Amino acid sequence: MSTTVRGPAIASRVGTVLGIAIAVCFTTGLLSHWIQNPPGWFYWPAHPVWLYRVTQGAHVITGVASVPLLLVKLWSVFPKLFERPIIKSPVHAAERGSIAILVGAMIFELVTGIQNAAQWYPWGFFFPPIHYAVAWVAVGALLIHIAVKIPIIRDALGERQTDSRRRTVLRTAWIGAGVAAVAVAGQSIPALRKVSVIAPRSGEGPQDLPVNRTAIAAGVTDTAQASDYQLAVVSGDVARAFTRIELQTMAQTKASLPIACVEGWSASANWEGVPIRSLLDSVGAPRGRDVRVTSLERGGLYRSTTLPANFADDPITLVALRLNGKVLDLDHGYPCRLIAPARPGVLQTKWLSRIEVL
Ligand SMILES: Nc1nc2c(c(=O)[nH]1)N[C@H]1C(S)=C(S)[C@@H](COP(=O)(O)O)O[C@H]1N2
Ligand SMILES: [Mo]
In whole angstroms, what is the distance from residue 121 CA to residue 90 CA? Predict the structure, then answer.
């Protein structure tokens, strides 16, 4: 009879659930990366409107839920991590090395991801490309790890677990993961808002919607409120400029659409404005073309984004003038901002200055 609680029985069970969480986290992360840096073959649909809200919510929730699972997993094999000699044979050395890389990369991904979701950026690097690159390292090392351990995993999962101490540890792992998931889920699932103690953005902000970058932070308070403000719309040689009043007199469309931040929080709101397609029609722009949208913001990473053709032609991709029944707040993008269905928040450009067909 075994007397240790640690070992393959726990490691393989917690590892399996952790593996599923990581698979969801990795896949949804890849999608988010491709939406923001689309390879030529990539297509992201504009409908259903909540699609990105769900994929990115799942990304952050599975990432956070992985923390307690990873801790229990490491605990279950802890003495093995310090086994001597470190190198017994080339195969053994490769296996140890892959575990060192796996653990390091996983911890890096979870820590930087959670810091990012909490909007705390202590590192000296730009988060997205590094988080993306290390994800491949982590997943590569994980696949090697699983391949090496398959026989042990299969045996351990085949045996019924009767040791009550182990069952307690497992129950603790599941409860820990569940609590972690619920604690953060409220930033994407409104019904959980009150119990989600670590949801950093959850509904505060003007017009009942969180703000990511304020007008002051973006340095647009003067240009956005200037009396000679105009929105330029350009297609080839044809260009027009619209004042806010001219935009207001055009046919308005209403749509309920979420802002779904890459950092995990999301919130639905009622938007009203001019379909971007109407503005494109006004300069005779053909359908099926990508469109560049540029902000009044002078610097910043998000001053300009490209709207893929299927989004530009969608009837509820709006140049929004109103939010939740009132004139768009300055912090939400006054005089007008882009709001498109199923698009990451980071690409929902505020304080528009120019729309140009590519
Ligand atoms: N010009 C500009 N638009 C921007 C940003 C920005 O930094 N500059 N931030 C984006 C991000 S990251 C998000 S999540 C949404 C948030 O919109 P909100 O502040 O109206 O909620 O705006 C987007 N639009
Ligand atoms: Mo965002």
Answer: 39
Which ligand places an atom closest to the C-alpha of 258? 1
Q: Which of the listed residues 32, 212, 330, 332 should we mutate to test ligand 1's pocket, taking the one with most ligand atoms within 8 A of CB?
A: 212
Distance 334 CA to ligand 2 centre (A): 17
Q: Tens digits of per-residue pLDDT, 247-291?
A: 999 999 999 999 999 988 899 999 999 999 999 999 999 999 999
Residues flanking ligand 1, CB < 6 Å: 209-213, 218, 259, 261, 295, 297, 300, 302-303, 332-333, 345-346, 348-351
Report the alpha-carbon distance of residue 78 to residue 100 in Å, rounded: 13
pLDDT tens digits for 39-83?
Answer: 999 999 999 999 999 999 999 999 999 999 999 999 999 998 888
Tell me, what amino acid is at 151?
Answer: P
Instruction: Look at the block and give the residue holding tokens 């639905």.
Output: 268
**Pocket-testing residue among 188, 213, 354, ligand 1, by greatest number of atoms within 8 A of Cβ:** 213
Q: Which of 322, 346, 353 most suits a substitution to test ligand 1, by most atoms within 8 Å of the C-beta?
A: 346
Q: Which residue's CA is the nearest one to ligand 1's atom 8?
A: 302
Nearest residue (CA) to ligand 1, atom 16? 212
- 206-357 in CATH: which number? 3.90.420.10
The answer to whether 288 and 309 are in contact (CB under 8 A) is yes
Atom of ligand 1 nearest to the CA of 205: 21
Pick 102 or 98 by higher pLDDT.
102
Which ligand lies nearest the alpha carbon of 336? 1
Q: pLDDT of 220-230, one tens digit each?
A: 999 999 999 99
Domain ranges of the chain: 3-192, 206-357
Distance CA(103)–CA(250), nearest Å, equals 56
| Alpha helix ranges (H) inside the chain | 8-36, 51-76, 78-81, 90-117, 127-158, 164-185, 215-218, 221-225, 244-249, 276-282, 309-312
Mean model confidence pLDDT for the chain: 94
Whether 232 contacts 284, CB under 8 Å: no
pLDDT at 1: 45
